[in-house]
């Protein structure tokens, strides 16, 4: 089982990194999946994710229940809806347009209602 979890975790990291550069490929869910796999299968890989200089801080905050900073939520929504709007504009199939809007609405609801907004205390 550990081998399967490690393979899934590595694939999720690869897809998550690709998602940084490719529109409509989500980064955060793949990195969260990788973290969940590694926490059960490879403490060394989980530690690598947690201490990664690019996304480690965000994963630690999310996993510890602190949530996502408001600025991060705003950026996610702006870029997500921007890329989804482009995709809706470029396709002629109504069912694809509706599916994209439905997915965007579900992600927006999840992000705004169920993911805590991290408080940043100014000193």
TrEMBL record:
The keyword Transmembrane helix applies. InterPro entries: DUF454 (IPR007401). Keywords: Membrane, Transmembrane, Transmembrane helix. The keyword Membrane applies. The chain crosses the membrane at residues 7-24, 95-115. Signal peptide: none annotated. Pfam families: DUF454 (PF04304). PANTHER family: INNER MEMBRANE PROTEIN YBAN. This is DUF454 domain-containing protein. It comes from Duganella dendranthematis.
